Amino acid sequence: MIVAVVSKKGGVGKTTTSVCLAAALAERGHRVLLADLDSQASASVSFGVGRAALAPSLADVLLWETPVRQALRGTGVANLDLLTASADLATVDVALGAYRQREQRLARALEPIADDYDFVVLDCPPGLTLLPLNALAAANVFVTPVAPHFLAIDALSSMMAAAERTRAHHNRDLALGGILLTMVDYRSRETRRNVDAIRAEYGDGVFGVEVRVNVRLAEAPAAAQTIFEYAPEATGAAAYRLVAEELLLRLETLAARRAGPLRAEG
After folding, report:
1. pLDDT, tens digit, 9 for 90 and up, residues 129-157
2. Of 15, 89, 207, 230, which has the fewest CB atoms closer than 10 Å, so is most exposed?
3. DSSP labels, 144-173
4. Which residue, among 32, 68, 39, has the nearest Cα to 132 in the 3D structure?
5. Could you tell me the CA-to-CA distances from 7 to 68, 118, 236, 252 in Å, in that order?
6. SS3 for 84?
């Protein structure tokens, strides 16, 4: 099962969601690979990988056809492996621009290890460039984190439209895993209004679980630990355990019926 964590807007907790979701699934006993597709390599650094030690990375796999198994590495977390990013990923759009079926490059690269993991979580860069499109083309489901702020909400509709286009042209099996409300802070008077607007617009497509603002989530990467190691009793840890549980339930529902429209009806 490949899960793309993707958002057009940056600063919405996408990497935090990718790392925490992968770690929460691993904590439940699933074999998980976290693939870092962002040239900033924030997910990789969160596990203590120094920037001088990122190679071989996903860039080597995508651009220079390094076998994906050569780029895999452990994280120190049971059941959780890592495929690092590097700055070279910033050149992917140009480097692959002339390739035919360039949107399928990631899917083909992951094929040799498809049976090795229960879940592959793809941490995508913000935007709708070639790497996020590759992730959507490779994924079974996508999860879109959204902070309840005006600009993030404004970007959500175009994100959903891009997923629909990818489904139509590159991946008929792509389904919405869920829209996840992140960085929720009810001390702001606009938060409730924005949360209600998202839930009204996207209905059951939105996770019931919300991830509130939690300083421990921001501190954990500096300690090169997941939230479950750094502060296992923190509200952020509890929230992402529930996110993983809800995602598994959503996947069971999707498996029980043929995936319908990406946009859930309220």
Report:
1. 999 999 999 999 999 999 998 888 888 99
2. 230
3. EEE-SSHHHHHHHHHHHHHHHHHHHHT-TT
4. 39
5. 25, 23, 20, 24
6. coil
Q: Which of 118, 111, 139, 135 is nearest to 32 (CA)?
A: 118
Q: What is the CATH architecture assignment of 2-256?
A: 3-Layer(aba) Sandwich (3.40)
112, 69 contact by CB (below 8 A) = yes
d(CA 197, CA 206) in angstroms, rounded, equals: 11
Report the first-to-last Cα separation within the chain, whole angstroms: 26
Q: What is the CA radius of gyration of the chain?
A: 17
What tens digit of pLDDT does each residue of 194-203 get? Answer: 999 999 999 9
What's CA 79's distance to the chain center, in Å?
18
**Tokens in use for 136?**
């959507």
As given in the structure block, the two tokens for residue 35 are 């693939």
- C-beta atoms surrounding 42 within 10 Å: 18
pTM: 0.93
